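User: My advisor asked me to double-check a structure prediction for Homeobox domain-containing protein before group meeting. I don't want to rely on an old file, so could you generate it fresh from this sequence?
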Amino acid sequence: MGRPPSNGAPSFRFTAQEVVEMEAILQDHNNTMPARELLDALAEKFSNSEERKGKMMVQMKQVWNWFQNKRYAIRAKSTKPPVKLSASPNFQIEPNTVRNVPQPVATAVVAPNAAPAVKLSNFTLASGSVGKGPDASIMEFEAKSSRDGAWYDVANFLSHRHLETGDLEALVRFSGFGVDEDEWLNIRKCIRQRSLPCEASECVAVLPGDLILCFQEGKEQALYYDAHVLDAQRRRHDVRGCRCRFLVRYDHDESEEIVPLRKVCRRPETDHRLQQLHALKDAAAQVAQQHLQRASGDSMNGATGAQQGQIPATLQKHQISS
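Assistant: Sure, here is a fresh prediction for Homeobox domain-containing protein from the sequence you gave:
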């Protein structure tokens, strides 16, 4: 299905001790992103450890990405999706059957007394209405940084402005970053509804040709970038969950990589695809149940008929003996 990365550079990994420390911090923060100062302190502490000092520097963005990945994973496990699919990889559906179905229009819930709203494609941004709490009714967004081309969660939209070209920009504060990292970004090109981490049962909805947000790990950094799925290798699931693999091509550097589902975040537009897949699977299960009931009924009727056929012979034997 393709080739793995060929640059030969080892991927950056946190040590087990570093992971334990970050997990404890995330738990203390109730699964919210720690402040920038704490992330900087962790990066400096890890860089000065005996295992890393003089060998490899840990960057703040690497620490930030670990927290974002962990938050995504916890959110995917704790939040029940509106559609639940079987984890069986044997359920097949033609890609064009679901890809060409019109997608629902997303609408955001705007907080009362919020700052003036900004129209963004099919939904609305309200300054100060995003990222202020766990309220699931408020739509979450991600933005593409002009500094590195990667996508980050949005904490707040601070302001907006109209350019002479007619384009509209928003002043974005990224989740986990401070005022020094605020950016003016083109709303149409660089801001969108947040991508969704995939549960193991949702691998059937990731199809070749899809735009996804994919976690690219390199020697010096690990960031989320846009990518397109080139091929999907379906594998039987086991106790570890989804074992499928996806060949992706990153949009920013045209590199190709084979990745597991845990590195893939699907776009919200695929929700409708999941609903259709679920409906088709339910229909198939209902048909199978009807066949089972019909076969069971025929079996019962056959047994009853056989018993009724034995009654006259029994009575005849009784009459003869008497």
